[in-house]
Amino acid sequence: MMILHIARRGEWETAVTTGQYTADSLATEGFIHCSTVEQVLVPANERFRGQTDLLLLCIDPALLAAPLVYEDCYETGMLFPHIYGPLNVTAVQSVLDFPPQADGSFVLPPYFT
Asked: What is 12-75 written as a DSSP string?
């Protein structure tokens, strides 16, 4: 089952040259936040509303070099996937543009429909 990570375009472009992606949360929280396809609109609309420089990284968990743990860190009852270490770019199978709609909200790209 594929997992997703919302990334800023510039940070992903840097990762491609270095071979690994490290989100700010890896330094501050110890992991990289991810979502399932069914969950991704929750953080997108809560944390990234209106941002125009975003990508969706489609990650194959079987190819991750770092541990993947599903956790309910916010006591919401939903288990979100977290990567405990840098994301190796070889685990990313697709990179999709993730623009907001006119009102700043997000919908799933056609790739998932």
From this structure: HHHHHHHSEE--HHHHHTSSEE-B-TTTTHHHHHHHSTT--SEEEEEE-GGG-SS-EEEE-TTS
3-class secondary structure, 82: strand
Please state the CATH superfamily assignment of the domain spanning residues 3-97 in this structure: Protein of unknown function DUF952 (3.20.170.20)
pLDDT tens, residue by residue, 25-66: 999 999 999 999 999 999 999 999 999 999 999 999 999 999
Is the pTM for the entire model greater than 0.85?
A: yes
- Identify the band that residue 77 occupies on the pLDDT scale cut at 50, 70 and 90: confident
Sign of the C-alpha dihedral computed for residues 41, 21, 85 and 92 taken in this order:
positive
Segments making up each domain of the chain, as ranges: 3-97
